[in-house]
Design a protein that fits this description.
There is one protein chain. The chain is of the alpha/beta class and about 190 residues long. The protein has 9 helices and 5 strands. It has a 5-stranded parallel sheet. Helix 6 (about 120-130) crosses helix 7 (about 140-155). It is globular. The structure holds uridine-5'-diphosphate and magnesium ion.
Length: about 190
């Protein structure tokens, strides 16, 4: 199985590029952010909890996102693989993903890390906020907090995958199709 972890700070372009990679390599796209937004739209209990956390730019607890991923991994038995977009977001989540995939006799193939500097991220998130209606893109303080949370809680995942020889940085600035080509070249080199 080909299992890609698409990693990077908020606004790095994970969602855009994950759709492209899923199509190119015929993978199931799993975005925990999208799944949480579906829960919010459906006004479920989980959605109400998630909305409060997401609108502050904080992280939904590990146990919640891990069990969302667990239930998705149980479903299709015939897939070529998965692309994980926006998950894992903490080192315990990365460890849990390894455990879950091991149970399915599989593993993370590579972690592709989209590298974009902070000023560019802030600009992109602001721009997205003008049209996305996403509460977490709406104001400067929330955007700033999301980037801080990324640096504190999410970025340590880089050394986790680096120690397994799976960390692969990708320059995340340029045209969408240029970045897409960088990503798919990296996958094909595996
Ligand atoms: N989120 C989370 N855990 C996840 C995925 C998303 O806590 O596994 C929350 C978090 O508050 C994050 C927001 O949902 O800021 C939006 O996530 P998404 O991955 O869609 O944002 P992106 O990084 O792509 O801008
Ligand atoms: Mg996203």
């Amino acid at each position: 199985m080909l299992n890609l972890v698409l990693f990077g700070p908020p606004g790095a372009g994970k969602g855009t590029q994950a759709i492209y990679l899923a199509r190119t390599f015929n993978l199931v796209h799993l975005s925990t952010g999208d799944l949480l937004r579906q829960e919010i739209a459906a006004q479920t209990d989980l959605g109400r909890i998630a909305n409060e956390i997401i609108s502050k730019g904080e992280l939904v607890p590990d146990s919640i996102v891990i069990s969302m991923i667990e239930s998705k991994l149980k479903k299709p038995k015939t897939t070529v693989g998965f692309i994980f977009d926006g998950f894992p977001r903490t080192v315990p989540q990365a460890k849990a993903l390894d455990d879950l995939l091991r149970k399915h006799h599989s593993k993370v193939s590579v972690m592709l890390c989209l590298e974009v500097e902070k000023e560019e991220l802030i600009g992109r998130l602001f721009k997205r906020g003008l049209t996305s209606g996403r509460c977490d893109d709406a104001d400067a303080a929330t955007i700033e907090n999301r980037i801080n949370v990324y640096n504190e809680k999410t970025a340590p995942i880089i050394s986790y995958y680096e120690s397994q020889g799976k960390y692969h940085p990708i320059h995340g600035i340029g045209a969408v199709d240029e970045i897409a080509a960088r990503l798919s070249d990296a996958v094909e080199e595996l």
